[in-house]
Design brief:
It is built from twelve helices and eight strands. It has about 300 residues and is α/β, with parallel strands linked by helices. It is globular, with a radius of gyration of 18 Å. The two termini are about 35 Å apart.
């Protein structure tokens, strides 16, 4: 049974976009994935994204994606919202992944803006609508023009929000003004997709986070959110400011690379990366240790 959700928080409030652990020889590590998922939920996450970009979805097969969803659901599906990343730049392939995720038991879908081929806004509308029509699962859009090359315009978001299964947006656009207008006009559940903007987005109507930093700082993110919800803005700001070195350090280079390094430093399942991603250099790892320590993260 899926965890309880509300229209305001259809996927929970604190979600981590989980890395995909691999074994030393580069194979999918399902036992490690289950142990990591359990750790993340125990630490305060009430949702997990699997098969997202941070899960190295561009370099995992469809079969591996299916096995990963099923394994994570088995481990924590009764305690957390398990949202499957299914977005690609091929609508037909995205529909296949969406139906497979539904068959596996996923609680929802994360659908990124099609990347590289740079479709127009009408193409985006048709793509997202086709995905939402393909299953009975709720959909979280993922707006990240820095990776996709194309933003989802506010007018497109307004139209997409009319679909009964398009219920949320992960905002990594980095534009608080446009976010404010979109939140006001769409009624979508808004999730910060940029850890540095977690608190600013909460202040204009976001309901939670889809975080990378949640791998190492889920209790702190939960405390920040709770302070905000309780009206203690001073405490929320204090936690935000304390985490600034962590927000900076986890994105000095590619986020999957730093996340897997941080997990390895903590003795948690991560494993190697698949090319074209590579392990951090010794100097980068030392800098990451400094950044995490400056933010109060124990290694």
């Amino acid at each position: 049974m899926a965890p309880i959700s509300t229209p305001q928080t259809p996927f929970g409030r604190v979600l981590t976009a989980m890395v995909t652990p691999f074994t030393a020889d580069g194979a999918l590590d399902l036992d490690g994935a289950q142990r990591l998922a359990t750790h993340l939920v125990d630490a305060g996450n009430d949702g997990l994204i699997v098969n997202g970009t941070t899960g190295e979805s561009p370099t995992t097969s469809d079969a591996e994606k299916d096995r990963l969803v099923r394994a994570v659901l088995e481990a924590v599906g009764d305690r957390a919202h398990i949202v499957a990343g299914v977005g690609t730049n091929d609508t037909r392939h995205t529909l296949e992944l969406a139906r497979a995720a539904e068959s596996a038991g996923a609680h929802g879908l994360l659908v990124v803006t099609p990347y590289y081929n740079k479709p127009p806004q009408e193409g985006l509308r048709r793509h997202f609508t086709a995905v939402a029509d393909a299953t009975g699962l709720p959909v979280m859009l993922y707006d990240i023009p820095g990776r996709s090359g194309v933003p989802i315009d506010t007018e497109t978001l307004v139209r997409l929000a009319e679909h009964p299964r398009i219920v949320a947006n992960k905002d990594a656009k980095g534009d608080l003004g446009r976010a404010g207008w979109a939140i006001a006009r769409t009624g979508l559940a808004w999730y910060s997709g940029d850890d540095m903007l977690n608190l600013p987005l909460l202040s204009i109507g976001a309901v939670g986070f889809v975080s990378v930093v949640g791998h190492v700082a889920a209790p702190e993110l939960r405390a920040l959110l709770d302070a905000h919800l309780n009206g203690d803005m001073e405490k929320a700001a204090e936690i935000h400011q304390r985490l600034l070195p962590v927000f900076t350090g986890m994105f000095r280079t590619q986020g999957v690379m730093t996340t897997k390094a941080a997990l390895a430093l903590q003795g948690l399942p991560a494993g190697p990366l698949r090319l074209p991603l590579i392990e951090l250099s010794p100097a980068e790892t030392e800098q990451l240790k400094i950044d995490l320590a400056a933010g109060g993260i124990q290694l």
